[in-house]
Structure formats: structure tokens, C-alpha cells
């Protein structure tokens, strides 16, 4: 059971509830639908796909040189090469936005695995480097969307990503408890004033019929007095 949050300065005296806003979780909202590196276990290790002897070797030898017995670095290299074959425009394409985004995606998913493995022990890699890589990739995705939207949509499908571009003119202020309390206090005061005005308006509506009846009687009395004064003057 999680421990209750204890604030240095309590806010129990406020007339409205306040809770600290949840932080943006890059691990859940980074855009990667797949958070692991999963190459084909029967594929050969990097550089062994060119071996003619391996193609004619027995099952034990082929399994020894397959991804099923490979290290994490070899699995990562296998996924990298297979992905680049699909993304590259030509065999020497290593500087295009699509390739840079694909390479960052491989690093990010590798760090996702690292974060899942060492979740209890937060490391510098999963705490600092992963958010930086995700933010840089989002910037490159946004740039590619502006340059070539068709290729941008194609790349999202190839990499199995989801990306929501930032809204134009949206200014995100730095979150802080003091300014959040000031904002909530202002909203609370505005709601209180509006509710009191509405209650007073409803009260006046209820008194309107009696006021109109009193007004009608006064006008009738004035009219009767005017007629009486005119008749006396005659």
C-alpha cells in the first residue's frame, strides 16, 4: 500500500481540495507501442548470414549461431540491420531523418528493456538518457511531418509508433505548487461570486411578482389621486 503524500506546508485549511498533478510519464506516453527488441530467434547472428557453411550445417550448429543464443548487443544489431533495410532509401543512406528516427527508436526500446529489468533500482540511463532520446525523436518526427507528411505516416506504421504533434501557439508553463494554488484560488473566487450572483438573481425573480403587484397598486393610487385633484380644481 503506497504511503500517503505528506506536504511540507499543509493545505488542509483551503476551501477546495488540492493534489499535486501527476508528472508526465515518458515510459507510458513516449509513443512506442512496442517496448522491447524482439528479433526472429531463428535468424542468424550478425555477419553470419553470409556464411555458406552455416546454411548447410546441422540444427545444433545453426542454433548456436542463431539469435536464440545471442547476447543483447547481437540482438540489438540484428534488429538494427533488419530495420535499416526497410527504412533506408539506398544502402548508403545513414543521414536521412527516417534513418535517424529509426536508430533512436532502437536505442529507446533497448532502454525500455533496461528500465523494465532494473525497475526497482532507477539508473541514470533509464532516468535521464531515455527521456532525452524520446524528446529528440519527437522533435525529428515533428520536423519530418512538416517536410513530408506522407513519408511521416509511412514511418509511423513501419516503426509502430504513435505521435501527436504539439498544438500551435501552446505555451506550457512550468508547474509549481504556489502558482497552481493561486490559479485554483482565483477559480474558486470566480465560482463563488458567480454562484452568489445567481442566487441573488433567483431571489429577485421570486420577489418580482410581489414588486409588480405593489407597483400596480401604487400607480392605481396615484392615478386615483390625480383624478381627485383635477375634480377638486374644477
TrEMBL record:
<dbReference type="InterPro" id="IPR052137">
    <property type="entry name" value="uS15_ribosomal"/>
</dbReference>
<keyword id="KW-0687">Ribonucleoprotein</keyword>
<dbReference type="GO" id="GO:0003723">
    <property type="term" value="F:RNA binding"/>
</dbReference>
<dbReference type="GO" id="GO:0003735">
    <property type="term" value="F:structural constituent of ribosome"/>
</dbReference>
<dbReference type="InterPro" id="IPR000589">
    <property type="entry name" value="Ribosomal_uS15"/>
</dbReference>
<keyword id="KW-0496">Mitochondrion</keyword>
<comment type="similarity">
    <text>Belongs to the universal ribosomal protein uS15 family.</text>
</comment>
<dbReference type="InterPro" id="IPR009068">
    <property type="entry name" value="uS15_NS1_RNA-bd_sf"/>
</dbReference>
<dbReference type="GO" id="GO:0032543">
    <property type="term" value="P:mitochondrial translation"/>
</dbReference>
<dbReference type="GO" id="GO:0005763">
    <property type="term" value="C:mitochondrial small ribosomal subunit"/>
</dbReference>
<keyword id="KW-0809">Transit peptide</keyword>
<protein>
    <recommendedName>
        <fullName>Small ribosomal subunit protein uS15m</fullName>
    </recommendedName>
</protein>
<keyword id="KW-0689">Ribosomal protein</keyword>
<dbReference type="Pfam" id="PF00312">
    <property type="entry name" value="Ribosomal_S15"/>
</dbReference>
Amino acid at each position: 500500500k503506497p504511503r500517503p503524500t505528506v506536504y511540507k506546508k499543509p493545505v488542509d485549511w483551503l476551501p477546495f481540495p488540492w493534489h499535486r498533478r501527476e508528472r508526465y510519464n515518458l515510459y507510458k506516453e513516449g509513443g512506442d507501442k512496442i517496448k522491447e527488441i524482439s528479433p526472429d530467434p531463428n535468424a542468424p547472428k550478425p555477419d553470419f548470414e553470409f556464411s555458406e557453411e552455416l546454411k548447410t550445417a546441422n540444427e545444433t550448429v545453426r542454433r548456436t549461431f542463431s539469435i536464440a543464443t545471442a547476447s543483447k548487443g547481437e540482438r540489438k544489431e540484428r534488429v538494427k540491420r533488419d530495420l535499416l533495410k526497410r527504412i533506408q532509401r539506398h544502402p548508403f543512406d545513414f543521414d536521412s531523418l527516417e534513418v535517424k528516427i529509426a536508430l533512436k527508436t532502437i536505442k529507446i526500446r533497448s532502454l525500455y528493456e533496461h528500465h523494465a529489468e532494473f525497475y526497482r533500482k532507477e539508473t541514470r540511463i533509464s532516468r535521464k538518457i531515455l527521456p532525452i532520446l524520446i524528446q529528440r525523436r519527437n522533435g525529428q518526427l515533428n520536423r519530418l511531418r512538416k517536410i513530408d507528411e506522407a513519408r511521416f505516416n509511412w514511418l509511423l506504421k513501419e516503426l509502430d509508433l504513435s505521435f501527436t504533434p504539439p498544438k500551435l501557439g501552446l505555451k506550457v508553463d512550468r508547474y509549481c505548487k504556489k502558482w497552481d494554488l493561486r490559479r485554483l484560488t482565483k477559480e474558486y473566487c470566480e465560482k463563488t461570486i458567480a454562484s452568489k450572483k445567481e442566487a441573488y438573481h433567483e431571489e429577485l425573480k421570486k420577489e418580482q411578482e410581489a414588486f409588480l403587484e405593489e407597483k400596480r397598486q401604487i400607480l392605481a393610487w396615484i392615478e386615483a389621486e390625480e383624478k381627485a385633484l383635477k375634480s377638486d380644481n374644477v
